[in-house]
């Protein structure tokens, strides 16, 4: 969602299934349904994110604020260590580094980067249809006690992604999304302080390149 570097992330569920998940061994479909319910039920989301990329001898950590408004709108405001913007209005995606003389643009449906598997957060969908081979990952310790980790491979990205790990709490919030690529690189998104159904203006998801900035067409909006 690498090198922004894709994507997320994410629905309120009924208390009964959530309590059963805590009192009995977790079932992958049950956990996925809780996540689906949490994020499919949202109209908007604000969260703080940390993105960590490692690969090819490089390790990079970035952070900022993620904004989501349905249908189809998403904005990643990177604040550290460098300001960057990734934004889509549901049809067109932009990537821009303030102060640079070029901005990149692509139709969202053609976007090929690690935010793509997270686009299910922007609409209504079922996680077990987005990830092939969805299952529990008992061999992967969760970051926080009581969380559950799922694994699968994003449909349509099998030629690039070896697996995706999703860590969720008992209420269906995604705390961590890890994407491992076939080339050995790894991108991890951590989401904190998630706020549901906050008021967000649609204008926040529109982007107008500053005067004098050249617009490049690209299917990969990675910095």
Describe this structure in words.
It is a single chain. This protein has helices spanning 15-23, 28-40, 127-130, and strands at 44-55, 58-69, 73-80, 84-88, 92-96, 102-107, 131-136, 148-154, 161-168, 174-181, 186-196, 214-217. It is mainly β. A hairpin with a 5-residue loop joins strand 5 and strand 6 (102-107). The radius of gyration is 17 Å and the shape is globular.
Concise synopsis of the structure shown:
This protein has helices at residues 15-23, 28-40, 127-130, and strands at 44-55, 58-69, 73-80, 84-88, 92-96, 102-107, 131-136, 148-154, 161-168, 174-181, 186-196, 214-217.
Provide keyphrases for this structure.
223 residues, 12 strands, 3 helices, outer membrane lipoprotein receptor (LolB), chain A, mainly beta
> Which word captures the global form?
globular
The proportion of strand residues reads: 35-45%
Indicate the mean pLDDT.
Answer: 83
> What is the H-and-E element order?
HHEEEEEEHEEEEEE
User: Whole-number radius of gyration?
Assistant: 17 Å
CATH class: Mainly Beta
User: Distance between termini?
Assistant: 11 Å
Assign the CATH topology: outer membrane lipoprotein receptor (LolB), chain A
């Amino acid at each position: 969602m690498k090198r922004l570097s894709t994507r997320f992330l994410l629905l309120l569920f009924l208390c009964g299934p959530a309590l059963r998940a805590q009192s009995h061994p977790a079932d992958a479909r049950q956990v996925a349904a809780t996540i689906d319910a949490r994020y499919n039920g949202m109209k908007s989301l604000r969260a703080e994110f940390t993105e960590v990329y490692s690969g090819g001898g490089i390790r990079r950590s970035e952070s900022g604020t993620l904004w989501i408004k349905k249908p189809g709108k998403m904005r990643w405001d990177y604040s550290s260590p460098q300001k960057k913007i990734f934004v889509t209005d549901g049809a067109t995606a932009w990537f821009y580094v303030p102060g640079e003389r070029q901005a990149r643009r692509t139709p969202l449906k053609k976007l090929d980067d690690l935010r793509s598997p997270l686009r299910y957060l922007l609409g209504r969908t079922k996680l077990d249809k987005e990830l092939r081979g969805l299952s529990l990952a008992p061999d992967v310790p969760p970051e926080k006690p009581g969380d559950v980790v799922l694994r699968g491979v994003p449909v349509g990205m099998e030629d690039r992604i070896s697996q995706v790990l999703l860590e969720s709490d008992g209420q269906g919030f995604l705390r961590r999304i890890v994407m491992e690529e076939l080339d050995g690189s790894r991108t991890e998104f951590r989401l904190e302080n998630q706020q549901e159904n906050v008021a967000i203006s649609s204008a926040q998801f529109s982007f107008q390149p500053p005067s004098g900035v050249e617009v490049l067409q690209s299917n990969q909006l990675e910095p």
